[in-house]
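Q: Mind making up any chain with structure tokens?
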Amino acid sequence: MQRTVPRILILALYLLAIILTAGCTTSDTKSQTVASSNTSSSSHITETGNEPSWMTVPITDVMTGKQTTITELAEEGKPVIIHSFAVWCPACSIQLRETAKLLKENPGAYTVLGIDLDSRENTEMIKKHVEKNQFTGMYIAAPTELTKGLIQTVGPRVVQSLPQTLIICNKKITYVGDGAFPEAKLKSILSELC
């Protein structure tokens, strides 16, 4: 009996290490490959003139209570960087920190929208997570219609592997990929797209 407890503890720690190093994925294991590739693997989705319906779903910033739509954010004229995330996802926090660095280096140049796709998480949980980590940008709990629309546009990978990144720039929505992109890579992608 005494040998069972250490084995269970070792197994639990091993599983935790695998989860933390693998990113936040449920069935898609290619996040590191996609994140390290160039933007030629990104895919253009649509022009905002034919925008998907998810762009007009009302969204509310958990920090300010301000309500808007993604269409309205895009119409402000700045590139919109969209990251899907969940509070429990370590790779998502890494991505949001990298994007915060980009914003700090280029204040006012981009609009960042973090979309929490975990239906089990509420606005209070998201707000505490954003405050604790001092993330910059706008953060929302995804309405069901928005999540369904993203799945229709990007595919099920948008909820199967977090984080996912999309960029809206020059009236185009581009799916960039999954996984955490370093600040320099994000800057390079933005310069190619915008």
About this structure: The chain has one domain: 24-193. The domain at 24-193 is CATH 3.40.30.10 (Glutaredoxin).
